[in-house]
Write a structure and sequence with these properties.
Rossmann fold; 5 strands; binds zinc ion
Length: 230
């Protein structure tokens, strides 16, 4: 169920039965010549829609607010990218968490498709500050970069390379065009960090890894709901 399309009576039923909000976090960021710049948010949204189908709950629209992106000169200074300040990311997550708690959600799952330690650390810090200081709410928050659920399967995060390309090929095949890459642009100079997707990315790989992420995250959410919103 999508937050933006629910009618109030449907919303109230979900809040009473499965008070879980899924917040896909992304960035508008260069992802090579072969992928849409919204990859990170689209990837997280696609995964969370599948989790919500399994475990129940409400999926919010992606939040397009990336910190420490490839726009920074230290990361190559790539175009078409919107870079936000660390405090903007933290403030935005805090406002989402407080208001989602007020709406009545008991668990907020923040799945970030944009990662890199500084960005993830900003989200984790904001979530920790919410948990410590906003004691008027009994709402739990999980901040998870999607690869963190499946590192044992070999996915440790990359950028527009084997894994991210495979996932987008599965979630939004129309937004990937590998024919845009050549031997030079398929590497770091093209903003690709990881294995050359031309040889390694397939929709089947994307389907397999998304299924594993969905299964494990849905199981965690189901456990949370079973033990009564601890
Ligand atoms: Zn990405």
């Amino acid at each position: 169920m999508r937050y933006e399309t629910l009618l109030p009576h449907e919303f109230n039923k979900t809040l009473a039965e499965k008070p879980v909000a899924y917040l896909p976090w992304g960035a508008l960021e260069w992802h090579g010549y072969h992928m849409a710049v919204g990859n990170d948010g689209l990837k997280a949204h696609g995964i969370l829609e599948r989790v919500a189908e399994r475990a129940g709950g409400v999926v919010l629209p992606p939040v397009w607010c990336g910190f420490d992106t490839l726009k920074l000169p230290a990361h190559g200074g790539f175009p078409l990218t919107l870079e936000f300040k660390r405090e903007t990311v933290m403030g935005l997550l805090d406002e989402y968490l407080c208001q989602l708690a007020e709406v009545g959600f008991k668990l907020v799952v923040v799945l970030t498709g944009h990662y890199g330690p500084p960005h993830v650390a900003a989200l984790v810090e904001a979530a920790n500050l919410f948990t410590i200081w906003q004691t008027q709410y009994d709402t739990r928050v999980w901040v998870i970069p999607e690869y963190d659920l499946v590192t044992d399967l070999g996915y440790r995060g990359d950028h527009a390379a084997k894994w991210e390309t495979a996932i987008l090929m599965h979630v939004h095949p129309e937004l990937v065009d590998l024919s845009r890459l050549d031997d030079e642009s398929a590497g770091e100079s093209g903003g690709i960090l990881g294995e050359d997707p031309r040889q390694t990315a397939t929709p089947e790989l994307g389907e397999t890894i998304v299924a594993a992420i969905v299964e494990r995250l849905a199981a965690r959410v189901e456990r949370f709901l079973e033990i009564g919103h601890e």
